[in-house]
Specification:
It contains 15 helices and 17 strands. It is α/β, with parallel strands linked by helices. The protein has 2 domains: about 160 residues, Rossmann fold (3-Layer(aba) Sandwich), CATH 3.40.50.720; about 280 residues, 2-Layer Sandwich (Dihydrodipicolinate Reductase, domain 2), CATH 3.30.360. The strands form 3 sheets. It has a 9-stranded mixed beta sheet with strand order 16-15-14-13-7-12-11-8-17, sandwiched between helices. Helix 5 links the parallel strand 4 and strand 5. The radius of gyration is 24 Å and the shape is globular.
Length: about 475
């Protein structure tokens, strides 16, 4: 694909645009990474002038970007790239003005962040205005449905105008440096791959904890819950990257082919199996960082059985991972904000050190808030060792921020927006991946209905209900807290 010279932002006045998209685009502009002719055209229902939209963008930059990183001349040049066209996506005749502002549709990238109910009319409007040409590409921000059927309906509507090769489904976790570094760690170093299987690894943990509650997303979140909001997309993508076979090369088809094989190999959790393989929780009143916080029902203002926490014991039923449990855990109002992957290696087969306790090696991949890779290793405790060698597990931290202190840490959306503009699909999700994810998730939700599973309470500021601890402890494994 050729580099786009027009980037069309739907929902350009919304929260995502102000917090992430506009600062990310400015970061790319400030570093000279955007095509000099690229124009950024915002659109939304708000009846703004171009000047008002630029003033909104300036306020967004002042709120999100440090003063030393936004020199006045660079900001002015960036604002000159911006245009704005108000649009009610439900009215087809409004798209003509949008097309006139875009110009060449063959060098167009579209970022669509809108309510699922507007996907159909928006796609139809774009196609009717000639903005679905063979050179155009379309990025879709989640949510892409609430189950397999609704996801297929959205994808069918999009596919009616844009072929799969022009569709860029966003999972912003794939834009994070440490997630991409997982590929480098696994396939750029010879020491890991021989052990990266059931022979060398006893278990894998993937945890995503949030300290926040509903944060103004009450209606959306209560309709989705933790399983669909976090596990269906972010966490299953992380699992796929951990478990996939080595791709022949790092291109979109090769990488995504291997990921979908993993997703299709997930052992179904059906019927009453959910009672031994999953835990649902909902936070009640508690405290985080010493400050009291309300419970979920207090925030929501009504009764609800929606889960704000879920823990799952999953299996990838293939040769490489046979018998290795993958423990997934995510929740709101956790003690800390954290996203990490823990790869637990097996213990040494024989200890030559007598009664010395040996801890098995553990690889800790931290995604947020700090991006880091650590490996616990056994080492000798300094001393004269008159009673024999004394060993202790010590961390070997790669320390990515220190190792790359000369490189600016980027917002995940910078990587994704640049790839969209330049037409690279590797870090975007293919339709068959999405459908494999939804198939697995829908079976769990159906199992919850069959088993009559209800949410277990946990106090805000804790790592979920006690049943989540039992989920791993039954296997002799402890969560990495």
């Amino acid at each position: 694909m050729t580099t786009a010279t027009s980037l069309l932002l739907f929902g350009a006045t919304g929260d995502l645009s102000r917090r992430m998209l506009i600062p990310s685009l400015f970061g790319l502009h400030n570093d000279g990474l955007l095509h000099p002719d690229l124009r950024i055209i915002g659109t939304a229902r708000s009846q703004l002038t171009v000047a008002a939209f630029r003033a909104m963008a300036l306020a967004a930059l002042e709120a999100a970007v440090e003063a030393e990183r936004r020199p006045a001349d660079s900001v002015a040049a960036f604002l000159d790239r911006l245009a704005y066209v108000p649009l009610d996506a439900t009215l087809a005749d409004g798209f003509a003005a949008l097309a006139a502002e875009v110009g060449d549709p063959d060098r167009l990238a579209i970022f669509l962040s809108t309510a699922p109910s507007l996907f159909g009319p928006t796609i139809a409007g774009l196609a009717g205005a000639g903005l679905a040409s063979s050179g155009a590409r379309l990025a879709l921000e989640k949510p892409l449905g609430h189950d397999l059927a609704s996801s297929r309906a959205i994808n069918d509507a999009v596919a009616a105008a844009y072929p799969e090769s022009q569709i860029f489904r966003i999972d912003h976790y794939l834009g994070k440096e440490t997630v991409q570094n997982l590929l480098a760690l696994r396939f750029g170093n010879v020491l890991f791959e021989p052990l990266w299987n059931a022979t060398g690894i006893s278990s894998v943990q993937i945890s995503v904890g949030e300290t926040v509650g509903l944060e103004g997303r009450a209606d959306y979140y209560d309709g989705m819950g933790a399983l669909r909001d976090m596990v269906q997309n972010h966490m299953l993508q992380l699992l796929a990257l951990v478990a996939m076979e080595p791709p022949a090369r790092i291109d979109p088809a090769a990488v995504r082919d291997e990921k979908v094989k993993v997703l299709r190999s997930l052992r179904p959790i059906t019927g009453r199996q959910v009672e031994t393989s999953t835990v649902r929780g909902q936070y009640s009143t508690g405290a985080i960082a010493g400050q009291p916080v309300p419970g979920y029902l207090d925030e929501l203002g009504r009764a609800s059985d929606t889960e704000t926490f879920v823990a799952i014991k999953a299996h990838v039923d293939n040769w490489r991972w046979k018998g290795v449990p993958f423990y997934l855990r995510t929740g709101k109002r956790m003690p800390e904000r954290v996203s990490e992957i823990i790869v637990q290696f097996r213990a040494v087969p024989h200890s030559m050190f007598g009664d010395a306790a040996l801890a098995a090696n553990k690889l800790i991949i931290s995604i947020q808030p700090d991006e880091n890779v650590g490996l616990t290793m056994m080492a000798k405790v300094p001393g004269l060792d008159q009673g024999g060698l004394k060993l202790r597990a010590v961390p070997l931290d790669i320390g990515l921020p220190g190792a790359f202190a000369d490189v600016r840490r980027r917002i995940a959306y910078e990587r994704l927006l640049l790839d969209l503009v330049e037409g690279r699909q590797t870090l975007f999700v293919r339709r068959d991946e999405v459908e494999a994810q939804w198939t697995w998730i829908d079976e769990i939700r159906a199992g919850w209905t069959t088993a009559g599973t209800t949410v277990k309470p946990y106090a805000a500021g804790n790592w979920g209900p006690a049943a989540a601890i039992a989920l791993t402890e039954r296997d002799g494994v402890s969560w990495h807290d």
